[in-house]
Amino acid sequence: MRRVLYALIPGIGAQFWWFGWGVLFSIGIASVVALAAEAAVLAIRDKSLKLYLGDCSALVTAWLLAAALPALAPWWLTAVGVAFAIIVAKHLYGGLGYNPFNPAMVGYVVLLISFPLEMSTWPALQHGLGFLDTAQLVFTGQLPAGVTLDAVTGATPLDAVKTQLSLGKSMAEITSGSLFGLLGGRGWEWVSLAYLAGGLWLVYTRVAAWRIPAAMLSSIVLLAGIFYALDPQAQPSPWFHLFSVSSIYGAFFIATDPVSASTTPRGRLLYGAGIGVLTYIIRSLGGYPDGVAFAVLLMNITAPTIDYYTQPRVFGARRG
Amino acid sequence: MVARSLAQAPFRLWTFNGGLRLASHKAESTWAAVTHAALPKRLILPLQQHIGSAAKVIVAAGERVRKGQLLAKADGYISAGLHAPSSGTVAALREHPIAHPSGFSASCVILETDGLEEWCELPPPLADYLAVTPAELRQRVRDAGIVGLGGACFPSAVKLNPDPSVRIDLLILNGAECEPYITCDDMLMRERARQIIGGLLIMRHALQVKAAIIGIEDNKPEAYAALVRALAEYGMEVEGISIRTVPTLYPAGGEKQLLRVLTGCEVPSQGIPAEIGMVCHNVGTAAAVFDAVMEGRPLISRYVTITGDGVRNPRVLDVLIGTPISELIEQCGGYNREVKRLLMGGPMMGFALQSDEVPVAKGTNCILATGGLETEPAPVMPCIRCGACMDVCPANLLPQQLYWHARSKEFDRLQDYHLFDCIECGCCAVVCPSHIPLIQYYRFAKTEIWAQQREKQKADLARRRHEFHLERIEREKQEKAAKLRQKKAALQETFTAEDPRKAVIAAAVARATAKQADAKLVTTADAARERDT
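Output (structure tokens, whole complex):
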């Protein structure tokens, strides 16, 4: 699982470039809390610390969750999310290998429901806060003198599209704004590309099953493409869906968690496609800014059933 | 039909799912020519060395026997006889530890050898095998106690006698020997290629098939060359036989996998090759058939690989069945000081022996003593369902799901996931990143399911017996009642027969009532007529 951490580095690097030091603070806080929580539960459960901390699974959960949080998230937000993910979503279900739900996404959804304000306060691109200023903001909630919260935060591209569409603007008008780049949101598209690079490496090294991200991304592109073709002025383009938001990150790093995903070849295709469809629906029609987390959790429930009905043809069994 | 056309089709090979490229470790034991192992003082001969019922002893303790003499005869159709590997005295008939994963003991004939190697009178050679009927050939194979020498030990005569309702088109000889370390078939093909081809010809005649393929993994070029040379030395009679190398990919030597690679056909799930018109025998079996038919020699010895980094001079020996393993190890220079484990079979499908006092059996292909190079087994971690096992499974199973349900003992689910299609090749356990000994779980589950089925059969039998019992009681009751009724009726009959006056009275009464009834009928008819008018 160490390789998942390596694969996250380019994406986290890109987030750091666009969103500043807060990203690294979140990663650091999440790592410390995750290791502490994991160690505590392992000690209670009388398991070998060396073995189970050494497998890096707690760190993977921590990084996956931290990377999904707003970059200037206060320290307690990260800590609560990670602690919930490790203690409740992972260990109360039996620990590594036994959790039916993706722990990082359980933590994310708990935060999203409990602290909607903090979870939707995204920093503006290259907001210019330095290391110490960011530390102060993250740990004490105090902004440096003369800086207002509005100055360092901004709408995410998806928020911008949603609000401006509701104001009657066309997609062409919206995407000509300064928030948008070539493919999707400015900055965000580079983050997505960096995660794509890491994700492709994971698939290449066979750490991640290729079928899940392939099916998830194609179903998103397909759905978005259909609706975009029907009404290009009122619907975001497929590439916007792909590169502005969490699609690529979710497809390669979240949906591919083997423990909670489907495990058969055909099952993985179905599972990935299900996440893609649900993500698109929640994103387009739902009240939450993004749907990947909910889509993943919903499909987690279906994984055992999918597996049962998608067994491969056994050697010597009749075809068809 | 399909099979025959495939055998003659241009060279093409097929693949199966997964499989592993493993370090072969074959060179260690193939450096020296095969020699006879020294004659041991005592031979230990288990009565059950094959699939089927155990052989029945026909000698008594204290009896002197000669080499090749029958010690125990086949008991039933699926069984195999047992012959004296050397001359000597039957010391005892008793339990002795045998090669078994659980270290069981079983009934054995213990033979004290006398060193004279005095042969008994052997049946005459059937040199012109084509003039002999298939049935006679099968009988000869059966009399020689030959079983499948690839490891499964199924009585060969049975496999040479397929169900008459199926048509066999293709005979396949398995010389793949895909498991690491094992080299006995490799050496056999190098040194006894002529006998293997000869045995193949005899089997072909016994099965009445024309087409035959010998399959060898491509990491055995010497064996391949030797077989090609031997084939060329035979004349026209070898037409229809081809020798093909298959890629070295474990478990290409598994019967189902080899058939798939050579012909593209799949043996039906939980079925046998005969269902698709094929029969598959091991090369060692072919050589044994040759010896039995051409020389009258029963199966009393075999090639065994003694190897591993726990033994000083690994090599292949020609070993008498029943030789204690400890003696073989000694002849290979003894154990290294670092020896840790003794396996019978290869590293993938073999099992650990508890003692080296167990004897070589007909199915023993390899003794593997692992030593210093074997690292401590890595700690077992939870399954994360990564699916690496699924990717290498040659049977297309979902080992991760089987593991999950085996752990929770959900036996119905296990059968839904086709547990019984698992060939226990061990690929899944090798690639498992969590180092889970998966095969152990599957074997456990299979044993449990078999036990349950036996229990169920027993319960069914008991229930049927009980129902039958109740039925019988009921039937007896009814029979009794019926008899009683019959008796009564008979009594009555005799009574009426005895008294003719009564019969006369009865007839008179009957006449009177009939008359009355007629009168009534007339009056009612008249009344009806009056009413109508």
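Residues 22-45 of chain A form the longest helix (24 residues).
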